[in-house]
Design goal:
The chain is an alpha/beta fold and about 250 residues long. It has a single domain, classed as NAD(P)-binding Rossmann-like Domain (Rossmann fold, 3-Layer(aba) Sandwich). Helix 1 links the parallel strand 1 and strand 2.
């Protein structure tokens, strides 16, 4: 178990990619903090699944795009487990709408859900990781930060948030490195989750033709990359973003 004894916060972990990451970390021996904004029943179900498998888990409901709520999540982790070793900033949304139709609310929602959580959570976690001189900070990026033509799918309003997140993690990685803390990202392509089902179906079908491996990804594909980056085997990797997209970014 490559994460034995580690304490991990995984945001947006009541379903989809976040839940897959949390379950994989638990199988690798980590103690989990399950986070959700609204889906408390699903979050509790994920925690029960983790406990049934023999690991520890708590649920903290918090909107991590809000500073006070993000601080509460980290404080609850420290109060329960005494430390935080791994942070996965995973919560986020996709807005599939032509750019000229995007509203001010769309813009604020994209930043609030995709960019703000990384800022608030990393700022809250780093002092604890610096004190213990170890830690892993991980973020879920997106292929939309580097590939922009998805046919019928129009996601311009979210590209700035995801690209900004990937750029920020590199800068934070430089500052955190002297303390034994690594900061990395995993950038998914089209992953078959509940969120995936909300995008334009014709666009999703067109995207499939752009994937050399000929299939959509699964949440477990992302969880595997996250588990590696969270482990000691990735101790000399920082400031990097692993693309997990079936080769789509090569097109």
């Amino acid at each position: 178990m490559i994460l034995a004894g580690k304490v991990a916060i995984v945001t947006g972990s009541s379903r989809g990619i976040g839940k897959a990451i949390a379950l994989r970390f638990a199988r690798e021996g980590a103690k989990l903090v399950i986070n959700c904004r609204n889906s408390i029943d699903k979050a509790e179900a994920a925690a029960r699944e983790i406990r049934a498998a023999g690991s520890e888990a708590i649920v903290v409901q918090a909107d991590v795009g809000d500073r006070a709520s993000a601080d509460h999540l980290v404080e609850s982790t420290i109060k329960t487990f005494g430390r935080v070793d791994i942070l996965v900033s995973n919560a986020g949304i996709i807005i599939d709408r032509p750019f000229v139709e995007n509203t001010d609310e769309d813009w604020r929602a994209a930043m609030h859900s995709n960019m703000d959580p990384f800022f608030y959570l990393v700022r809250a976690c780093l002092p604890h990781m610096i004190k213990q001189r170890s830690g892993r900070v991980l973020a879920t990026g997106s292929i939309i930060a580097e590939k922009y033509d998805f046919g019928p799918n129009k996601m311009a309003v979210c590209t700035a948030a995801k690209a900004g997140l990937i750029s920020m993690l590199r800068a934070v990685a430089v500052e955190a490195a002297p303390y034994g803390i690594t900061v990395n990202g995993v950038s998914p392509g089209y992953i078959a989750t509940e969120m995936f089902a909300t995008i334009d179906a014709a666009g999703a079908e067109a995207a499939l033709k752009m994937i050399p491996m000929g299939r959509y990804g699964m949440p477990g594909d992302i969880a595997s990359a996250m588990a590696f980056l969270a482990s000691d085997e990735a101790a000399y990797i920082t400031g990097q973003t692993i693309r997990v997209n079936g080769g789509m970014s090569m097109g």
